């Protein structure tokens, strides 16, 4: 199993795909590399080298108990992992908290970012369109001791009812993969949440992002409502916004993975533009 020494932790990571430009996938709050559906990794790896990993505090990566975790720290972890895995530059695709981390990478390390994809995420701060209280209650509810039941209870904040009904077998398979992976310590979840609440506010800085940017969101997302994606797209120069009807927070699965095809088309366009301009 590949591990890299990244700052003060050992970070677990994998690289998939035989060739093509690198794409780094950054998962959200409380989720590790097992949170990426295999269909997503397979689609991307058919054209790219795909880097996926467990963030600080989750999965097989180190979970130091000393607070605080910060968003700049999580971004620096990801960039140091690029160094450790031998990539000078990559496309960056972050979802939810991973999209927050991706914003900080694009702002603090612009030379490391080729194309930027921000999925179901927010600029944070006072401009945020807030999560409804009933959804937030489900997200932060302490574990019951029955991990499988807790994950199933959270499905309605990640998927539409239609997807839960029609794709129950696929969701159960994802659940089995999650149960086979190390459970996140509660203190680490709270430290990640603290990084979101206390250290993520990019709204005023977003116009400084220079990477070509695609923003995606499901129109039925109640965890990070669509208004947040619209703010991102309005603030980031030349950003493209794609909104998906009948899709919730886990919009990749909810769209039948059409959103992944859109990402592949976007990345191909970024690379074509780069070739035409001679940029690197």
The major β-sheet equals: 8 strands, mixed
Approximately how much beta-strand content do the residues carry? Answer: 15-25%
Number of strands: 8
**Count of the domains:** 1
The number of helical elements comes to: 11
Please mark out the parts with pLDDT under 50 across 5 or more consecutive residues, or reply none: none
CATH superfamily: Alpha/Beta hydrolase fold, catalytic domain
CATH class bucket: Alpha Beta
**Could you state the oligomeric state of the chains shown?**
single chain
In CATH, the topology is named Rossmann fold
What string gives the helices and strands in order? EEEHEHEHEHHHHHEHEHH
CATH architecture: 3-Layer(aba) Sandwich
Instruction: Please state the structural category.
Output: alpha/beta
Polypeptide structure, described:
The structure is a single chain. The chain is α/β, with parallel strands linked by helices and 280 residues long. The protein has one domain: 3-Layer(aba) Sandwich (Rossmann fold), CATH 3.40.50.1820. Helix content is 42%, strand content 16%. It is built from eleven helices and eight strands. It has helices at residues 38-45, 71-84, 97-108, 133-140, 147-158, 161-166, 168-179, 186-199, 227-235, 251-254, 258-277; strands spanning 3-6, 9-16, 22-26, 49-53, 90-95, 113-119, 213-218, 240-244. An eight-stranded mixed sheet has the order 1-2-4-3-5-6-7-8, sandwiched between helices. Helix 9 (227-235) links the parallel strand 7 and strand 8. Helix 2 packs across helix 3. It is globular, with a radius of gyration of 17 Å. The relative contact order is 0.16.
